[in-house]
Amino acid sequence: MSANYKNGSVKTKSISTSSSSSFSSGYKSKPSVTSSLRRNSTGSAANSAAGLHKDTPGVSGRVRVAVRLRPRNSEELSTDADFADCVELQPELKRLKLRRNNWDSDTFEFDEVLTEFASQKRVYEVVAKPVVESVLEGYNGTVMAYGQTGTGKTYTLGKLGDEDTSARGIMVRAVEDIFAETDSISVSYIQLYMEMIQDLLDPANDNLSIMEDPKTGDITLPGASLIEVRDQQSFVELLRLGEAHRFATNTKLNTESSRSHAILMVHVKKSVGVSGENVNSKSHMNRTMKPPVVRKGKLIVVDLAGSERIDKSGSEGHTLEEAKSINLSLSALGKCINALAENSSHVPVRDSKLTRLLRDSFGGTARTSLVITIGPSPRHRGETSSTIMFGQRAMKVENMLKIKEEFDYKSLARKLDVQVESLIAQHERQQKTYQDEIEKISLEAKKQLSQAEKSFADSLEKERVKYQRDCMESIKKLEAQLAVNKIKEESLRNKPNEELIELKKLLENETRLRKTAEEEVKNLQNQVVQWKRSEVAGNAEIVKLRKMLEDEVHQREKLEEEISVLQNQLLQLSFDADETRKQLESGDHSAEMTVDMGSLISPVRQPQMKHSGEQEKGSVAKLFEQVGLQKILSLLEAEDPDVRIHAVKVIANLAAEATNQEKIVEAGGLTSLLDLLTSSDDENIHRVAAGAIANLAMNETNQELIMSQGGISLLAMTAQNADDPQTLRMVAGAIANLCGNDKLQLVLRAEGGIKALLSMVRCRHPDVLAQVARGIANFAKCESRASTQGIKSGKSLLIEDGALGWIVKNANNEASPIRRHIELALCHLAQHEVNAKDMISGGALWELVRISRDCSREDIRILARRTLSSSPSFQVELKRLRLNSG
Ligand SMILES: Nc1ncnc2c1ncn2[C@@H]1O[C@H](COP(=O)(O)OP(=O)(O)OP(=O)(O)O)[C@@H](O)[C@H]1O
């Protein structure tokens, strides 16, 4: 490449910065220029995504264009002194007027209008500062200068301002602002000259190729130097180095005319915290373990080569070629901008390397600020006009800004490494502490162990000594004892053995006694054998006796029945005697008949009356035959009370004969007699009727009939109302007969028979009491039989109905008929264990004992004794009372 360097010298790289040969980032192209334009034109989507709130609505994203007027240079001051400037600026209106002639001009509006008096600082703030701020926020930004040769592009962008800092251009000021917020940037600086890309920081790389990522559209320059710069001074040195390598030539219009497009690329990395956290928050990093977010921005500053008419620049030969190449690339840029401005579907990016390199700066994702530089000279009105038109079209191009953020895994890894190392160190320290602690504890343990061993050995020794001492003492004692024993043994050996003789004597005595005792035992055993034999014989005797006893009892029962019959007859006779006596005493005429009739009644008389009785019996029989039973029975209902009572007496007498009883009952006599108990108020009639019923009640069939016709209730009622002992005796006799029927036990009791009997004891008359006792004895006998046969269970109904008290009280009654009946009743009751408890508590046991000992009748005595001995309850009670039942 044959061109002069702008400052005429080549500077070597002597920068205190690290360098990288790789160009790691490039331009990120939008997917389609038109689509991005359309989206941006419809609203502020890009703005809101990028957060560009500083921009005025509707302008954001659009390429911002400022126009800067260079002051007249010395030549223009002299040659154009008489001519007015071709432009008139109205900065307050952001307008520029381009004169056509003295009276006419075209007016253009720009984003900024910078007069010839605008300071470099002002130009930076208006043109570049918003872009720099964007870059620091993670966007790509482009600042570009376009204009005719010598109008101040390099002055605006690249002025280093070594002598005068106020003269510093946009590059220096931009990096200064970037360094204020981040301490590391990477810089590449290239120039495009005659369609060749050369590395300005390493001019040997003079044919760099453009790489386009087919997926992302990113453009990179892999061969270009990427130098990390850490301070402003180093950057200025780099700029100086790059500027030194820039092609420049002395043109008509500019003695230092840049003949290449210079492109400075500043890569900025700025860390931001996750979700707005402070990036330096170490605790946050530890907690989330997420890498910090890094915003990567890239600032591109493009100092285009001057646009000029070839004729005007006076270019010829190689310079002409340069000028052609420059114009070609600038016109390609112009075409692209036109296409973008017109929203054309085709943007001819590939027409030149310049447009390929800058494809992202116009219509891409970068924020772009363009400064067009113009001169005041009317002679260059045409170039000025063309520059203005370029700027006007560029104002129509809209970009779609995109933020570039990525996670900083490297920095996270570094931080984690540091943490890991710190943790390892901490762990090692802890390990050390633990080991020290363990050593300390084990030392302590060893010490304690040796102490314990020592004290154990000491106590062991003490024990051993004590034990030895005890042993010695024991041995001494034993030896002493041994000596004593020896002495004793010696003396025993010498003494006559008196004790032994004594013992022998005792032994002989004992042996003798034992023999005697053995003989005694033998004798006793013989006696026992003999006794057992006699017991067997005795048992046979007992069985025989028992048999006899039972026969006796049977015989007795028969006799009792006979006695009962005789008693009834006796009852009747005594009744008749009473009646006769009463009638004789009253001297009543009718008494003769009554006496006659009464004398006929009883078949059984006192022995002295036997003969006359027979006679009476015959006359009653005669009357019976002559008058007829029906007639006599009808007289029972006669109106005359005397006739009625005589009729009853006749019936009563007839009823004493077993042969008449059936006839009387068949003829309804029993019913009539029972009716009289209720229909008559006369107690005499009650008495005689009850006597007749008592006679009829001697027959078992009649007993059942009496019961079935409510006889018990009627008799009970009669007993209740009666005052005369004889009436009560008749009633009690009737009930006593009924009590002797096994079948009627339950009904009799249920209908109040027992209670009625007991109620009659209110009359103390011994005849009444004897009948009550007979009834109780009869009932007890039947009950006992039923219990033995298993028909009845449970306690005696006599006891249930409260008879026991009276029984016990009268068991030793002085009247023998009463006493005998009660003694029998007690024996019957005592035969059943179920009654034993009540009998014991009711005092009956004492009476039984008495009966077993004192009863005049032997059979009853034996019965009582047997009963006592067979009842376990009585036995227990007797033992308790220390009484012998025998
Ligand atoms: N605003 C200004 N104030 C004072 N001097 C200026 C101004 N602009 C430019 N100059 C001077 O004008 C001359 C040309 O400027 P510069 O080299 O920056 O122009 P250029 O546009 O870069 O030209 P080329 O395209 O040929 O490189 C320089 O001497 C420069 O100092």
Automatic annotation (TrEMBL):
Region described as Disordered: 1-57
Claim: Cytoplasm is one of the keywords in the record: yes
Sequence ranges of Low complexity compositional bias: 9-32, 40-51
Top-level lineage group: Eukaryota
One Pfam family hit: Arm
Localisation: Cytoplasm, Cytoskeleton
Chain coiled-coil ranges: 424-576
Domain Kinesin motor, chain residue ranges per copy: 62-397
Assembly and binders: Interacts (via C-terminus) with NEK5.
Family label: Belongs to the TRAFAC class myosin-kinesin ATPase superfamily. Kinesin family. Ungrouped subfamily.
Protein name: Kinesin-like protein
